[in-house]
């Protein structure tokens, strides 16, 4: 069984694309995944995992996922071999079947959009007319 689940942050915005002939959408991006331990220097090692997506999931990624966003990826690991400078090379990447956003908005956007509610009593309501209730009188 070849199945992988990863949680990490995008290192840059996704690269959208289209498969020639079929017109299916594609998306390529890399996620940074923290290891679950610290090294001798007290730092948490990070793995950078390339991810490819095709179809409706690619449309979702291209439209709604951006750099720094925390995502969960489910898919399979694949190895591609190619030639560069007369040298055989290979790359291991994830072919994602599912991409799930784990944050509603980026923290930077969240901090810039602040809402301060205000309260004004409606007319005819006298805030001074109410009496405090003693907690010992409440039956529950």
Q: What does the model show?
A:
With 140 residues, the chain is mainly beta. It is built from two helices and six strands. It has helices at residues 56-64, 107-112, and strands at residues 4-10, 15-18, 25-34, 46-54, 70-84, 87-101. It has a five-stranded mixed beta barrel with strand order 1-3-4-6-5. The radius of gyration is 25 Å and the shape is extended.
Radius of gyration: 25 Å
The end-to-end span amounts to 55 Å
Helicity, as a percent range: 10-25%
Average of pLDDT? 83
Please give the number of β-strands: 6
Write down the overall geometry: extended
Number of helices: 2
Please give the largest β-sheet. 5 strands, mixed, barrel
Structural class: mainly beta
Q: What is the strand arrangement across the widest sheet?
A: 1-3-4-6-5
Low-confidence stretches: none
Beta-sheet strand percentage? Answer: 35-45%
- The helix/strand order is EEEEHEEH
């Amino acid at each position: 069984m070849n199945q992988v689940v990863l949680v990490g942050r995008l290192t840059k915005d996704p690269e959208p694309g289209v498969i020639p002939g079929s017109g299916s959408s594609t998306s390529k991006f890399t996620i940074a995944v923290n290891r679950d331990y610290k090294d001798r220097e007290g730092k948490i090692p990070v793995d950078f995992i390339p991810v490819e997506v095709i179809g409706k999931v690619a449309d979702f990624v291209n439209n709604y996922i951006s750099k720094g966003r925390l995502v969960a990826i489910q898919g399979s690991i694949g190895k591609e071999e190619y030639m560069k400078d007369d040298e055989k090379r290979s790359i291991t990447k994830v072919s994602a079947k599912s991409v799930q956003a784990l944050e509603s908005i980026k923290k930077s956007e969240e901090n810039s959009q602040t809402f301060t509610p205000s309260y004004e009593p409606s007319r005819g309501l006298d805030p001074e007319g109410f009496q405090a209730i003693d907690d010992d009188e409440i039956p529950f």
